[in-house]
Amino acid sequence: MRMRNSVALFFCAALLLGGSACSSDDDNTTADTTDTGETNPDPIEVSSCSSSTGMEKIICLSDAFKTQLTSSQLAAAQRTYTTSEAMKWSNFPEALYGQRVGLDFGSMTSTQIQYAKALLKEIAGTSDNEGWDELQKLLNADEYLKENGGGSDYGAANYYIAFLGTPAATGTFEIQYGGHHVAFANTYTDGVLVGATPSFRGIEPFSAFEWNGETNQPLVQEKDALSAMLTALSSDQLTSAKLASTFSDLVAGPQKDANFPTTPSGVKGGDLSSEQKDLILTAIKTYVEDVEDAEAILTKYTTELDDTYIAYSGTTGLTTTNDYVRIDGPSVWIEYSCQRGVVLSGTHPHSVWRDKLTDYGGN
Q1: Which of 167, 242, 250, 324 is the most exposed place for a label (fewest CB within 10 A)?
Q2: Is 313 among the domain residues?
Q3: Are 231 and 176 contained in the same domain?
Q4: Are residues 111 and 46 in the same domain?
Q5: Do 154 and 225 share a structural domain?
């Protein structure tokens, strides 16, 4: 049940009657924290965490968010770390999947969601069209679907956030966030990011759309980078990279953990020019840079480029139904699949980034 202003005022009054102060970080922020019941507000600026950096700030923002929750909400959001719960993610709306763990935005006040988004913004990073910017635009896309034929099964109210394990400088925890077309999972051990996958992105509509007066078209940078990677191949290389099968969906999508081919297919990076390898790395970056702490991951994938393969099916434009492309390295696995629209006409992409060694933090 969603708490409204009247409920918040009741708790505040109870604190005052008991002689306690009723205050929060809201008093020291620049965001509008008026609780309108909005499920897609902007993140809040948590001033008490502004001087913190790195893991200290992640812990601070996690704690700030949790202090905004009721005891029952906290029990839903804060869970023990288990790989089985970490694996509970999907590209489906929750009405179809029904197994996500954590606390849904529809059960939160707008202020609580602002605190949740402040944390997600910190760990996803703030590059244009990547990280938090991409996650927010994907939320906007689901709001658009809700208002244009999808109904209440779509929209920001159906997205979940969970702590698997308690955020701390020691031990293991994962911050998990997801809903329709989105899975975000950062796993930390002893204060270090040890896994940022599985990471799922999809969007409908794929064409540019207007939301709250702004143009949105997330994932177009992934499509453009992957298409540029393919079109830079010679005709002979394209022939070698072409897969014999037609792919209507992802090979290693939700609930298909470790479903990687035993033998890679396509063109090997070591057989390509430095310029062509740079285009592979550029495409990889559009996925890896969706997390704030991407440097170590990119360094690993860069050193493995010569042993990384690229392959595709369909056309190199990646906008036609059954267009498909993959990047298959010793560690990195990226897939992009163009599919028919579900709510709207036209095509829309599904895409996944996995790490063969560090999915779920390597657990």
Answers
A1: 242
A2: yes
A3: no
A4: yes
A5: no
Same domain? 17 vs 123: yes
Place of tokens 């029952």: 72
- Using an 8 Å Cβ cutoff, are 289 and 134 in contact? no
Structural domain span for residue 269: 220-362
Count of domains for the chain: 2
Residue 187 near residue 360 (C-beta atoms within 8 A): yes
Please list, in sequence order, all residues whose beta carbon lies within 8 angstroms of the beta carbon of residue 66, skipping any fewer than 6 positions away.
74, 77, 78, 163
Q: Of 147, 146, 163, 45, nearest to 101 (Cα)?
A: 163
| Inter-residue long-range contacts of 188-192, CB under 8 Å, 24+ positions, other chains counted | 188/55, 188/58, 188/361, 189/361, 191/54, 191/55, 192/55
Tokens 């690993």 locate to 300
Do 128 and 238 belong together in one domain? no
Confidence band (pLDDT; 50, 70, 90) for 34? Answer: very low
* Distance from chain centroid for Cα 191: 21
Burial of 293 (0-12, 13-18, 19+ CB in 10 A): middle
- As a residue count, the chain comes to 363
CA quadruple 170, 192, 185, 49: dihedral sign: positive
In a domain, 189, yes or no: yes
The answer, yes or no, to whether residue 33 has pLDDT greater than 80, is no
Residue 210 lies in a domain: no
Same domain, 167 and 32: yes
What is the model's pTM?
A: 0.90
pLDDT surpassing 60 at residue 7: no
Q: Are 114 and 33 in contact, with CB atoms under 8 Å apart?
A: yes
168-217 pLDDT, tens digit per residue, is 999 999 999 999 999 999 999 999 999 999 999 999 999 999 998 999 99
Q: In degrees to the nearest 10, what's the CA dihedral of 310, 316, 322, 324?
A: 20
Q: List, for residues 49-104, the tens digit of each pLDDT value.
A: 999 999 999 999 999 999 999 999 999 999 999 999 999 999 999 999 999 999 99
Beta strand spans in 98-181 (E): 103-104, 160-164, 172-179
Whose tokens are 């906007």? That residue is: 140
**Separation between Cα atoms, residue 233 and residue 211, nearest integer Å:** 37
Sign of CA pseudo-dihedral 257, 261, 263, 266: negative
Same domain, 233 and 322: yes
